[in-house]
Design brief:
By secondary structure, the chain is an alpha+beta fold. The model has no long low-confidence stretch (mean pLDDT 93). The strands form ten sheets. Strands 2-1-24-25 form a four-stranded parallel β-sheet, with helices on one face. The longest helix has 22 residues, at 634-655. It has 25 helices and 32 strands. Bound molecules: ligand ANZ and zinc ion. Ligand ANZ binds at residues 232, 251-254, 257, 333-335, 338-339, 341, 343-344, 346, 349-350, 423.
């Protein structure tokens, strides 16, 4: 007999990585026709950061690769592209710090990340690679921008923005955490600046409706999107302001409380505030109040617990229902960008209004009668938020709360007080960034013509190279003469380029369309190719992108559909969000998300050097359900290694046996078929942790059978069959070792092209037997178990039965089997058999 081959992953892992790469195994010709076997698998494309990837990142890519390999083996024509979300602040900040230009920095990082993917044994179709910072890509951002501008979907206006003094840029609301910049930690300041927006609010309804059709998205993500869009229905109601000969409109979800509206409250930003101030006896104080509230952060103003501040304008409006004049106040909790920027306040039935009314001594008028008697405004300590029946409201009196809103809307419309109105929380998408490393916005300022779009044929508007990164205030682009001065596309006179660049979420809103036709230089993509390959069949990425990225991508698809370029609105048929990897942080003593800034990362480099990539892959998929957060454990890694070593040993033993002969119907062959069925189902449901444990169980059976010698219960051919089944099922998880043995068994490379094994239904019938359960000799229960189940396990299951538990009544018992192992008898300890 030959010497037993040692399990040394480093002796074959790099070899197979090179072989897969050379053979371009993941290449897909997207220009060729494809049938229903097409499968578009996509990982959210990463930002090429300067830090080495850690095992927490590995989780995403390893999972994606396992899915890709599986679908390939299932015979699906699977596209698995990869690219780079390459624009963004970190590259620019690195340039300020180290002087390396953003492009050089980014290119270097991309090369390093690619190398890491390779070392994990991850296969992408690199012929589709794209980087958003490449002019060949961002040119089409600019083109799409022009199309949107033409249709009024891109526009410019002054807007209050969150300004981070540290990053010197405008932040999106979600980049502001507790009033501070999520990146630099600086306190955010409100500023009014001219900004570019995409009019995503035009699509609010369609974005909301589309969610209902996404059957294969996590419910949680759909809920987050629904809340973000935030549809509210109610009414817009008009209040006359006689002193100004004008009208104030409010948005309310509770028109049924109109009779209880005892004052109006306006945001200090309301357009009518200027004319109200003009006739106020306390004008200077009023203006000071307005200025002060405008400095408050939005978060504070929005917070339920925030201090309610107000100012009496000394002007009144007429409540259309009661005909009475009611005071108009300014209030900090009325938001400048929601509804009508003005509210009717009903202190008796709204908590904020109640708090405000108590603080400023404003009247409280209940318009609901609770089941146990009327409310006394003087004695109330909080707003009445539950139902009851309407009272003090003319014709509506006696209506139950459930019908009151609809009744009120009907009256409001009938009497011309206002109309039904739906409002969305969704805001237009602020895309301007005052930074260099992004897509230049293709707009030109001309003294004669004003704001002019760049001509399509002049695209791309290139990022200039003559830029200095000193970290001074303002956009570095503003210092580049070569960039700034340009002839006006309309009159040919001197023009000046827009220096704002686009939010990087623009890049990620359509990259999945470009992937199928990445070198097209006449169009963003060929619609025919997109029609063949899109929507994406399986999208995988982090839950942190549950709202914005996915919403923006869905918005872009609707816009592109309206432009006639694609035929669908939902880009991602099935979505999976993987969970994060956590680890004990030595600094805090807590288990925290693995990240460089927390100093609790594990480097895959050392892990791969010590155990090999397959071990990291096995452990990563085994550690827990992939959608859940999981804690990294060094012991688990060693366990994964031992498992692979046992697979290796079993294969080595079987390789010594003759492969020819009849496979037959043996216990191992049956086990192989049952395992095929289980593993296939579990991969379909992404239950990779269960997949690995199922494969471990199958490996034990294989190892035992090989050790016993094929002659006892098995045949050599059965062992060869089972070993090949194991290699196939294990391939998505541990591709290198399996590929190695596939070759050593004399099979043709590559496993990726080997068909996924099929379970023979005839082999799946489990041989079960009935076991009768006695307690002290009396029959109390029965169970069905696998004929081969270990007696100890039969005992455990039998003892768990409720009947047995009841008859034992908590006493300790010993179990006895009869000779045929068909009866199990529990006898309480010390009581003897009955
Ligand atoms: C009268 C009323 C009575 C209200 C009542 C509520 C309860 P959602 O559901 O979030 O859409 N509102 C309207 N515009 C606002 C703004 N710009 N800033 C702050 N609050 C605003 O909330 C709609 C309700 O929030 C509206 O209905 C309005 O108060 C207030 F017992 O009108 B309600
Ligand atoms: Zn001009």
């Amino acid at each position: 007999m030959n010497e037993k081959p040692v399990f040394d992953p480093s002796s074959f892992e790099p070899k197979w990585q090179a072989a897969w790469e050379k053979a371009r195994v993941a290449y897909v010709d997207t220009a060729a026709p494809v049938g229903p076997e097409k499968f578009y698998m996509l990982m959210m494309f990463p930002y090429p950061s300067g830090d080495r990837l850690h095992v927490g990142h590995g989780r995403n890519y390893i999972l994606g690769d396992a899915v890709f390999r599986y679908f390939r083996m299932r015979g699906r024509k699977t596209l698995n592209p990869m690219g780079w979300d390459a624009f963004g602040l970190p590259a620019e900040n690195a340039a300020i710090k180290s002087g390396v230009p953003p492009r050089a920095y980014t290119t270097r990082n991309i090369a390093a990340m690619k190398e890491q993917f390779r070392a994990w044994g991850i296969l992408y179709d690199w012929s589709k690679e794209l980087a958003s910072c490449d002019p060949a890509y961002y040119r089409w951002n600019q083109w799409i921008f022009l199309k949107m501008w033409e249709r009024g979907l891109a526009y410019r206006r002054k807007a209050p923005v969150n300004w981070c003094p540290g990053c010197r840029t405008v932040l999106a609301n979600e980049q502001v955490v507790d009033g501070r910049c999520e990146r630099s930690g600086d306190p955010v300041e409100p500023r009014d600046l001219e900004q570019w927006f995409f009019k995503i609010t035009d699509y609010a309804e369609r974005l909301l409706d589309g969610l209902d059709g996404l059957a294969e998205w996590p419910e949680k993500v759909k809920t987050m999107q629904r809340n973000w869009i935030g549809r509210s229905s109610g009414a817009a109601i008009r209040f006359a302001v006689p002193a100004l000969d004008s009208v104030l409109t409010v948005f309310t979800t509770r028109p049924d409380t109109l009779y209880g509206a005892t004052f109006l409250a306006l945001a200090p930003e309301h357009p009518l505030v200027a004319s109200i101030a003009a006739r106020s006896p306390w004008r200077a104080d009023l203006e000071a109040f307005v200025a002060r509230v405008r400095q408050e952060s939005r978060i504070d103003r929005e917070s339920e617990a925030g201090t309610k501040e107000g100012f009496d304008t000394a002007t009144t409006a007429i409540n259309p229902a009661t005909g009475e004049p009611i005071p108009i106040w300014l209030a900090n909790f009325v938001l400048p960008d929601y509804g009508e920027v003005a509210i009717m306040s009903v202190p008796a039935h709204d908590s904020r209004d109640f708090e405000f009314a108590r603080k400023f001594g404003l009247p409280i008028r209940p318009v609901y009668l609770p089941p146990d008697g009327p409310l006394d405004p003087a004695a109330m300590t909080q707003a009445w938020l539950e139902g009851g029946e309407v009272s003090g409201s003319g014709d509506w009196n006696g209506a139950p709360a459930s019908r009151a809103v609809e009744l009120a809307i009907a009256t409001v419309e009938e009497r011309g007080w206002g109309e039904r109105r739906t409002t969305y929380r969704l805001r237009d998408w602020l895309i301007s960034r005052q930074r260099y490393w992004g897509t230049p916005i293709p707009a030109i300022y001309c003294d004669a013509c004003g704001l002019v779009p760049e001509k399509e044929e002049n695209l791309p508007v290139l990022l200039p190279a003559d830029v200095e990164f000193k970290g001074a205030e303002g956009n570095p682009l503003a210092g580049s003469e070569s960039f700034l001065s340009v002839p006006c596309p309309r009159c040919g006179g001197p023009g000046r380029r827009e220096t704002d660049t686009m939010d990087t979420f623009v890049d990620s809103s359509w990259y999945f369309l470009r992937f199928v036709d990445p070198r097209n230089d006449a169009r963003p993509f060929d619609p025919a190719i997109v029609a063949r390959w899109l929507p994406v069949d399986q999208y995988v990425g982090g839950i942190e992108h549950a709202i914005l990225h996915l919403l923006y991508a869905r918005f872009f698809c609707r816009v592109l559909r309206d432009l006639g370029m694609i035929g669908f609105e939902e880009p991602f048929a099935r979505l999976f969000n993987q969970g994060m990897i956590t680890r004990l942080n030595p600094a805090t003593g807590k288990v925290e998300k693995m990240s460089k800034s927390r100093g609790n990362t594990v480097s895959p480099d050392e892990l791969i050097a010590q155990y090999g990539a397959d071990t990291e892959r096995v452990y990563t998929l085994f550690m827990g359900p992939p959608e859940k957060e999981c804690e990294w454990s060094p012991d688990g890694v060693a366990g994964a290694y031992r498992f692979l070593a046992r697979v290796h040993d079993a294969c080595a033993a079987i390789a010594e046996m003759p492969a020819a002969g009849v496979v037959g119907d043996t216990p191992l062959v049956r086990k192989a078929h049952r395992t095929i069925r289980r593993i296939t189902d579990d991969i379909d449901r992404f239950h990779f942790n269960v997949v690995v444990s199922g494969l471990m169980e199958f490996q034990r059976a294989l190892t035992d059978a090989a050790a016993e010698g094929a002659e006892v219960k098995e045949t050599p051919a059965a062992l060869h069959f089972a070993a090949r089944v194991l290699l196939k099922l294990l391939h998505p998880v541990a591709p290198h070792l399996t590929e190695e043995w596939w070759e050593r068994f004399g099979e043709a490379p590559f496993l990726l092209d080997a068909p996924w094994p099929e379970a023979d239904p005839a082999m799946l019938i489990e041989e079960t037997i009935e076991i009768r359960i006695q307690v002290q000799g009396k029959l109390r229960d029965k169970i069905m178990v696998d004929r081969e189940l270990e007696p100890a396990e039969v005992e455990r299951r039998a003892q768990e039965r409720e009947g047995v538990q009841r008859w034992l009544g908590g006493r300790k018992a010993r179990a006895y089997f009869n000779a045929q192992k068909q009866i199990i008898n529990f006898v309480p300890v010390g009581e003897g058999e009955a």
